[in-house]
Amino acid sequence: MSQGPIGIFDSGYGGLTVLKKIVETLPEYDFLYLGDNARSPYGVRSFETIYQYTLQCVHYLFGQGCHLIILACNTASAKALRNIQQLDLPKIDPTKRVLGVIRPTVEVIGNYSKTGHVGILGTTGTISSESYVMEIHKLFPDIEVFQEACPMWTPLVENGELEGAGAAYFVEKNLTHLFAQSDDIDTILLGCTHYPLLLPIIRLFIPNGIKVIAQGDIVAESLKDYLSRHPEIDVRCRKAACLDFHTTGDAQDFDRYGSFFFERALNSQKVEINP
Ligand code: DGL
Prior knowledge:
Elements: E1 6-10, H1 15-25, E2 31-35, H2 47-63, E3 68-71, H3 74-79, H4 81-92, E4 97-99, H5 102-109, E5 117-122, H6 124-129, H7 131-139, E6 144-149, H8 153-158, H9 165-180, E7 187-190, H10 199-204, E8 211-213, H11 216-229, H12 231-234, E9 243-247, H13 251-262, E10 269-270
Parallel strand pairs: 1-2, 1-3, 2-9, 3-4, 5-6, 5-7, 7-8, 9-10
The structure holds D-glutamic acid.
């Protein structure tokens, strides 16, 4: 039986915050990261475009030998995952798997809040999909969910604007909108894998005592659990501790900016994704 790396996909650099935690948790596995930097951000694009772009990237990663792909992107998980799982995978190869980041996050979010008021920050695509609201209410019907779309945050992060007056302006503005919806929010989920890079500035505008949750550890634990429950998939994941990074954008840029996210030196290659 052929073995391959686990594919980790994001529209750009954000998924590296998730991959970092996954590699810490599952260091023996091979991973192939694909950032669609040339077409990032996805968050402001239409449903159809996000679905088509994500599907093209999934085809690419399958073509590279992956049997399991994690969409380390909330926007793709919200807008494309269901169609890919239900319509495309049965035709492409029913033995392969594509998983997202929303479900594993929702499964644990109820453990954090005492007031039952949870804030979600995400891209316009993720927030308008209402995926978090629907999924949280399925598992935790008593939790009240308050959402805020932060369309400027991903471009800030993709361009390395992690501090300073520009970043502070947009972070404060969106957090003010979020807190205006409820005084009782005690837990805020960073529902976009780019946002952990803005944590230092986010904390400046969040009152003490409010928990801010990033998804990396949650997704890493969930993947570990998934592999232990699915030996038929695990056996198809190569374990030679190899990491590869592919980008549709400029490889030098990816290595320079991506190393902030991954916190170690990167050596990526530029690739073409066939439409
Ligand atoms: N990092 C992505 C997410 O988690 C997407 C950001 C974007 O492309 O807009 O939603």
